[in-house]
Amino acid sequence: MAAFNLTLSEPSPFILIGIPGLEAAHLWISIPFFTFYIIGLFAYNKQKHEISKEQTLHKPMYLLLCMLALTDIGMSTSLVPMALCIFWFNLKGITVSGCLTQMFFIHTVSVMQSAVLVTMAFGRYVAICNPLRYATILTNARIAKLGLVGLIRAVLFILPLPLLLSRQPFCANRIIPHTYCEHMAVAKMSCGDITVNRTYGLVIAIVVNGSDLALIALSYVLIITAILRISSKKAHQKALNTCTSHICVMLMSYTPSLFSYLTQRFGQGIASHVHVTFANFYLLVPPMLNPIIYGVKSKELRDKVSKYTCRR
Question: For the chain, which residues score pLDDT lower than 50?
Fold first, then answer.
């Protein structure tokens, strides 16, 4: 009887089923998961090594690249090990505390990444609209402080999510149709009233993502205005090339993120596997492509990597 009571007192784990409707293909799906993650890790380590090793790359732009790469690899590392356990070993159980911890880290790093993208947009604005003051406005110390502010903001905004969910009573059916513990997917497992959880999640989306996108849009409006005032075609091209990599990274980050958020809340007619696939795309593909995009577009970084590779 004592053992029976102990079993009842322990919270039952959640069950992550992976990509719903595609369970039979999980082994095949694991191949791109594993491949993208390894490529992302390799690209991150390569970029970090080159920037830390070369004194000439100790500049604000490359410090921001390191921050972006760190958030990228943080998101994919929060997802991939658990997803591969589901795909390879059918280990689908995760404790309530483990689930809430994973949710906290994924969403915190996501908000932090958004702050980094805003800072990068501001950097592009200063470089094009006020180039003579770039070195005095954007110093390494100032970038580090902005990064710390972004981290504190992310923690303060996201911490209430797991705290609110930890107070919820969860139903007997704890099967989550996802590869990771996404906030609304977990909230829907509750038998209680989740109005506060829904509302707070909406507030975060509006205040954080909305304000960040507005600031990025404002930066690019000012950048485009400045570019249109330039008479030289060569200067036009150079200014546009400065922004190309940042625009590509933003599109890869925000598009699947917004799609995932909207379908989770309002897309009842969209198949679950489509929603989950886009959610995973957001956490997997940018970490693999971002270092490549910036490596290709940044001549200075590209030259350093080529030089190091030739030495080997």
Answer: 1-10, 309
